[in-house]
Structure prediction request, 404 residues.
Amino acid sequence: MPNRPKEPHAKDPRKLDSGRWQARVTYYDSATGSRHETSQTFATERAAKKWSREQEMIYRTNPNQRPPSDQTIKAFMTQWLEVEKVHIDANTYRSYRQMAGYTLTELGEKPLKNLTTLDVQRFYTTLRDRGLSTRTVNYVHTILRLALDTAVDWDLIPRNPANKAKAPRGTRNPLRIPTPEETAQLLRTSEGTRWYSLWAWFVITGTRHGEALGLRWTDIDWERQEAAIGQALSGEGAHRRIKATKTAKGTRIIALGPRLMAVLAAHRETQQVLREAAGPQWEESGLVFTTVHGKFLSEVNIDRVFKKALIRAGLPDDIRVHDLRHAMATQWLAAGVSPHIVSERLGHTSVAFTLQTYGHVLPHQQGNAAGPMEAQIFGDSIPTPSPRAQKSEINGEIADDGRN
Prediction:
């Protein structure tokens, strides 16, 4: 009679010299029958027993279950970042790596399998005590949770301890939206500079930073007065490259208008002068907005030049280039343009996201719509029952209630 395969079983926790309790589960390799043991320490005996029972059930349900990984969090997250690098753009990868750096500093040497929800919660508290903003800690939380989800997918840990940890809550900083007067002032004082066309593009189109820097002359339809947004410049320094827009909604056609078309036509002539002046140093990229030698523009340098343009215009220097996108969206919505149209122009994934971001612009439009609606329903005059008639009706209702 063949031997029955040995089943996993939880051992009684044992108390360590440190005062903590070690939970142990014995399990057997389904292919070789070899015996293995996995363990983890807890502050209380009760917690250790609970973990042991859960692990025993996991191995009974799935005999091929791998034990939690012994590798450190630093080793795992380094490996995870290398894998993610293939699937995300350069800017996103840099932000992932930066946020993961906080985790590596505080938790890097801890074994991955020993990470608990309480560890994660204390980690967030430490970051706040160090003065990090709520937004940054929430971003760290997002990246850590993504990484640990992958650890679960790779069968390195049975569950994600960050899922039940609570990131700090905080109020979102209000958008800094330039007024129409401010954007007009920026363009007036920038006219005659080689940056005028770029600022005008941002003000009128509301495109993202990278989308503007990735725009090609072939993307512009001069007859239809439209531009096709289908790629963006990503990265900085030697890592700059052209990539497709992040989402399907990001690939779109936007209307330009005769004034902006005239600005672009003048800009094209200026670029031709620069091309001739640069001679063999010119690098032909086909892009609309380039350096004086035809190379990729740097977002860092653009932000620096934009700051100078604000100062020259006498405007607050806390305005960002990206805020011109907010200005365009706000002005369109305030003018009564459909949120659906605004969402399409911005390349948002949904109208709901547009409304969530710019909903503060819409309340005053309720007043604009309420009057015409009431006039249509009630007509020119609104009949109002006299107080005596209302009192008679109320008394009648009370009498009816009494009879019932």
Observations:
- The longest strand covers residues 21-28.
- The mean pLDDT is 84.
- DSSP finds 15 helices and eight strands in the chain.
